[in-house]
Amino acid sequence: MIDPVELTKQLIACDSVTPARGSVFDVLEAALIPLGFDVERFIAGEAPDGPVENLLAMRGSGGRHFAFAGHLDVVPPGSGWTSGAFEPEIRGGLLHGRGAVDMKGAIAAFVAAIPAEIDGTISLVITGDEEGPATYGTVAIIERMAERGLKPDLCLVGEPTSVSRLGDMIKIGRRGSVNMWIEVPGKQGHVAYPHLADNPIPKLVAILAEIGAIELDQGSEWFQPSNIEVTDVTVGNPATNVIPAHASARLSIRFNDLQRGEDLVTRIGHIVATHAPEGKLIARISGEAFLTLPGDFSTLIADAIEARSGIRPELSTTGGTSDARFLSKLCPVVEFGLLNATMHKLDEAVAVEDLVALSGIYAEILRRALTR
């Protein structure tokens, strides 16, 4: 029987800053093989977004196919940890270490929840690049699954969704995300002779003013309003008497199911072209908004949580993006995992009792999902 706390400690002990490769996958594979899984590891992609290591593990055949998805990569730890970020340590009932909640703990809890015998099929879809570009991560695993004719009936993503208490929230959807870079060219010159120069700053200011006045929507039934945020403005002009040759800005848009990424790019592009015909817009759509409508799967998850914890989770679509945006194209997807209060923070930590409790809830979810 696998101890979720010990497995989490082993995973944390592997420095797996995104993109993760090597030892952290060795630990997971070593835990899965004795449980009867066929484990396939492969490298995908080239620089700059690759190479990325991924893992696809399968056990069983026929019946209902339940997939668990997650990632072993973590964000850089930063400095100032009480103990080493990759030196797991239990203090006051909390297991500290980078990835404790996001999301090595959930992966360990799920592995520990897998029963000795199953009626159906279980797969683990685990990537080493969710915190980074995610170009060759879960997308590459999905492609590999398609080549093998594998299509889950249900997918649970172990992202840390709980807020104040384990099980108080699950995610049934996520907003879409698009980042944009605006470049406005000008002509450098002396500020005393503006007629001999072309200042790009007023053009950029006009662009940002029009963008700032946009109200994309007021939200939808399951989503909060879409929002546009200016995340950087750069001129890079060290001189006080020089009109700069260029100015740039960066936007991040989080959008709900009333919007589409390409439509937003087109709309912003028109604004840039109006104020700066020579300007350039570069955009990267990280994912579209998705929603798994409340129904059998979300009810199954909620019932399992309530049976083990006594609380009924809230159904939510708040928060950032996750790899569920890719997996939602395969089958119904719900996200559920640990408390998210310390994710990406110094001294990231998970309550030991929550790890054990989560494993029990995952076991209940598996039992209900595979016996229907």
Please give a structural write-up:
This protein has helices at about 5-10, 25-30, 105-115, 140-145, 200-210, 260-275, 295-310, 325, 350-370; strands spanning about 40-45, 50-60, 65-70, 90, 95, 120-125, 155, 170, 175, 175-185, 190, 225-235, 240-245, 245-255, 280-285, 290, 315, 335, 350. The protein is of the alpha+beta class and about 375 residues long. It has a six-stranded mixed β-sheet, with helices on both faces. Strands 12-14-10-15 form a four-stranded antiparallel β-sheet, with helices on one face. The protein has a three-stranded antiparallel β-sheet with strand order 4-5-19. Strand 1 and strand 2 (about 50-60) form a beta hairpin. The longest helix is centred in the last third of the chain and has 19 residues, at about 350-370. The radius of gyration is 23 Å and the shape is elongated.
Task: Briefly say what this structure is.
By secondary structure, the protein is of the alpha+beta class.
